[in-house]
Amino acid sequence: MIRLPLILPLALVAACSQEPVLEDVTQNNAQAMEPMGRPDPVASAPAQTAAGTIPAAYHGKWSANAADCGKEGDVTRLTIAPRELRFYESSAAVTAVSSTDQSISVTARYTGEGETWEATRTLALSGDGSSLTVDGMPRARCP
Fold first, then answer.
1. What is the DSSP secondary-structure string of 90-104?
2. What is the mean pLDDT of residues 123-131?
3. Lesser CB count within 10 Å: N end or C end of the chain?
4. Is 82 exposed, middle or buried (0-12, 13-18, 19+ CB in 10 A)?
């Protein structure tokens, strides 16, 4: 025979140790979640430029080499404006720009040859501003 005086205290302790169940399911979920930590302010997150604008240092006309600047059939030409990229057979409306110490990433909506697409390109400007590398392809600033 099981002794009632021993079981009753154990049953009461077990019943009292359960967490309360709330009526609203979202309250139950909120209790189970751990608080989110704040991001590390020292982390090198890219900085966003004003409203997706390419910095002025990058503006201008660019080509694979200076000798090709201004040539009619230059397929490597690129014109950079504050909110636009224009290539030989396509153009792009800039939607976002982020920067690091050495480069910028430009996300844009492209149109060309009857197609549209979105892409992000990395642009790195030389220290003196005379050359630009776009996704690994070097270009010279045209006069």
1. -EEEEEEEEE-SS-E
2. 95
3. N
4. middle
Q: What is the DSSP letter of 4?
A: H
**pTM attached to this predicted model:** 0.64
Per DSSP, the three-state class of 30 is helix
Q: Which of 9, 32, 13, 14 is nearest to 22 (CA)?
A: 32
Most confident among 21-25, 31-35, 36-40, 111-115 (mean pLDDT)? 111-115
CA distances to 15, 22, 35, 118 from 19, in Å: 9, 9, 19, 50
CA distances from 43 to 7, 24, 32, 67, 69 (A): 57, 38, 29, 42, 40
**Is residue 106 helix, strand or coil?**
strand
